[in-house]
Design a protein that fits this description.
The protein contains 25 helices and 24 strands. By secondary structure, the protein is an alpha+beta fold.
């Protein structure tokens, strides 16, 4: 058999997989498919040189050593803002219309799957990598497990050159989820029976069954999303292959060339041509049409193969999407319309306070345990005292509880009709749970705080836990239990003390052995190699998350540069608010934090960004961008300006130096012209940038 014949056999099997798993229209029997599959497998074993990456036999392979390795996304995977009613929908449109002069309609509507977001990278049509969403910036490499999902093509059905990214939701059909939990219940009972037998008395089938059950586990999954996530993160891809996982694609991104289709709906159609299962998108040209299409999805909620928790709305025009851009957390051009979640009734037994790493104090509802949406709920955040007063919640109230977004428990409202005189009105205590400071509460801020928040022992503990968490430096072994032990034994007081620990400090701790001690010290040593952006995030400064940290380092090149900067210099950066600068100044005003900085420097942390070039060419100049651009995307031009020291804002004012405009610039052009602001079309902007290139 030659290579041409092998490719023909692969194509035949791939078409059969697509027909069965995507089109739900089988073109051959299971027996015929298995016969062809086994034939191909035998050919590849006898002729290793004929083994192709897109062969169906390569869906289940040995788990690589770098499985679940953290990998940075080529472009950030944003989460969506939520809306819940017509009024919020109307406000969303109002916000969009203020930003752009382009038409918002048409808008697409599609079901929002309650699944696991995934990114698939194809190079010249071949699947090369699958990543989980992670925190949106960095995800986990799950390529070996993604390949086991039968409705994901190993090779695109059309010849597409360059790098293409497909984003979608991995889900488990509801029936498959129910069957999986049923099987795990049966396995749990079987396991108990087999454990009672002597090993010598077990039959070969019983031994194999016991091995399988222990390998796969017997824990019941809370919901289908939880089952999909757990299945996709199996270290053994052969287990993943037994789970009925599917992918529904929702976004196509070209990384090496211009977008061919100018509309999300057209890209959705093209993803179907490439071999993916896609949503049935509805297109609307008015809010009335949108609400009608949302109602259709809501009324059909229980008819889908998968769990849905809402509808996703997107501006259809990719050019308008580009002009609308992103906030620090989400795209402006898309929003999730969330459906009401499952609700249950229980008793609000108490309200406790919880102090976070920034000194923020959150009231927490202590509930009579109740099962909501398949999960046991015994507590729920109450956000702030104003929320408690607004809802008129009282201790011993019967309350309605739901899982907000089908995930986070939320107390919806009290059932006032069931009050019997035993209810108590809750008042905010005067003392922080740390017992060493009072509580400050300013109603305009909504959130109470420990007055000594920068030295609060609970906040300190939470900051250490955050520093070592996945959201911080992801220091293996530095979880809550370890931090509690280190604080209790007075081995540490703050973050800086972690890097003063030695073997003798740890080895004598209760239940600590040499391996655990060595692993923690190694993880701490490895953490020193992190980037300045990651370190800045891990410091836990209020409002300074990963995205903000990246922006700050990008503009100041170092953590020292940020801490030395004036407030105005921080606030003038595109995407950075006044609250960020105020928080940074408050943080650095504490002498303990300055000492921490010096300790981290002494420990070997990198505070400066490597390989930075001069970025002073456009320093002190503020730009506004408007209209439809042809040469650049909006983000490309923002990045270019910021990399050269300039600042980008969204509104024209007397402080604006330049307006960069494309076709149909609208009212921003007129306002800039009236203020005698320099107007640059794309040609003029290129000339401005070329001056920098000549001078550098």
């Amino acid at each position: 058999m030659n290579l041409k014949e092998v490719k023909a056999l692969i194509d035949q099997l791939s078409k059969a997989e697509h027909a069965y798993y995507v089109l739900n229209n089988p073109i051959m029997s299971d027996g015929e498919y298995d016969k062809l599959f086994n034939s191909l497998k035998k050919i590849e074993e006898d002729n290793p040189e004929l083994l192709m990456e897109d062969s169906p036999t390569q869906r289940v392979t040995e788990t690589p050593s770098d499985a679940f390795e953290s990998v940075e996304h080529q472009g950030r995977m944003y989460s969506l803002d939520n809306i819940e009613n017509s009024k919020e929908l109307e406000k969303w449109f109002e916000r969009l219309e203020k930003i752009t002069d382009s038409a918002i309609y048409p808008v697409t509507i599609e079901p929002k799957i309650d699944g696991l977001a995934i990114s698939l990278i194809y190079v010249d049509g071949l699947l090369k990598r699958g990543l989980t969403r992670g925190d949106g910036v960095v995800g986990e490499d799950v390529t070996h497990n993604v390949k086991t999902i039968r409705n994901i093509p190993l090779r695109l059905k059309e010849d597409v050159k360059g790098t293409v990214e497909i984003r979608g939701e991995v889900y488990m059909p509801t029936d498959s989820f129910n069957n999986l939990n049923k099987q795990r219940k049966e396995d749990s009972a079987t396991l108990d029976l087999l454990k009672e037998k002597n090993k010598a008395d077990l039959t070969e089938d019983e031994k194999n069954n016991l091995q399988r059950i222990r390998k796969e586990g017997t824990n019941i999954f809370i919901n289908s999303r939880n089952a999909a996530a757990g299945s996709l993160r199996q270290k053994d891809a052969s287990i993943t292959s037994t789970r009925d996982l599917r992918l529904l694609a929702y976004q196509l991104i070209y990384h090496d060339k211009e977008v061919q289709n100018q509309f999300h709906s057209k890209n959705n159609d093209f993803m179907g041509v490439l071999g993916f299962e896609t949503n049935n998108i509805k297109i609307s040209n008015s809010q009335k049409e949108i609400e009608k299409n949302i109602d259709v999805i809501k009324d059909s909620r229980n008819k889908y193969l998968y769990q849905i928790d809402g509808a996703v709305l997107k501006v259809d025009s990719l050019q308008t999407q580009d002009e609308l851009g992103f906030t620090s957390k989400s795209p402006r051009w898309a929003v999730a319309f969330k459906f009401p979640s499952e609700e249950q009734t229980t008793v609000l037994k108490d309200i406790k306070l919880q102090t976070g790493r920034t000194g923020a104090i959150t009231p927490v509802a202590v509930l009579e345990p109740v099962v909501v949406g398949g999960a046991r709920v015994s507590s729920a955040t109450l956000h702030n005292p104003d929320e408690i007063n607004r809802k008129d919640l009282r201790i011993n109230d019967h309350v309605i509880v739901r899982r907000a977004g089908d995930v986070i428990p939320e107390v919806v409202a009290p059932i006032k009709e069931r009050r019997d005189g035993n209810q108590e009105i809750w008042e905010l205590p005067k003392e922080c749970p740390c017992g060493e400071s009072s509580i400050e509460y300013f109603e305009d801020e909504k959130v109470p705080r420990c007055k000594e928040k920068l030295s609060c022992n609970i906040a300190q503990k939470e900051s250490i836990i955050f520093f070592g968490s996945k959201s911080g430096l992801d220091i293996d072994g530095l979880g809550k239990e370890t931090v509690d032990t280190l604080l209790e034994k007075k081995l540490i007081k703050g973050i800086g003390d972690l890097y003063k620990l030695d073997f003798n400090d740890l080895i004598d701790l209760p239940s600590w052995e040499e391996k655990k001690t060595t692993n923690l010290l190694s993880a701490l040593k490895k953490s020193v190699e992190t980037s300045p952006e990651s370190l800045l995030t891990a410091l836990g400064i209020r409002f300074v998350g990963k995205r903000t940290a990246q922006t700050l380092i990008k503009n100041f090149n170092s953590i020292d540069g940020i801490l030395d900067a004036e407030r105005d210099n921080i606030e003038n950066i595109h995407g950075i608010s006044k609250s960020v600068s105020e928080s940074i100044f408050e943080w650095k005003s504490n002498k303990n934090n300055i000492e921490l900085i010096e300790t981290l420097k002494d420990s070997g942390f990198k505070f400066d960004k490597k390989n930075t070039s001069s970025k002073s060419f456009l320093a002190g100049n503020t730009f506004v961008i408007t209209g439809t651009l042809e040469t650049y995307t909006r983000q490309e031009i923002v990045d270019l300006i910021e990399n050269l020291g300039g600042t980008v804002t969204t509104a024209v004012s007397k402080n604006t130096n330049y307006l960069v405009y494309g076709s149909n610039p609208g009212s921003k052009y007129d306002k800039a012209n009236s203020l005698n602001i320099d107007l640059l079309d794309e040609v003029n902007f290129k000339d401005l940038i070329s001056k920098y290139k000549k001078s550098s």
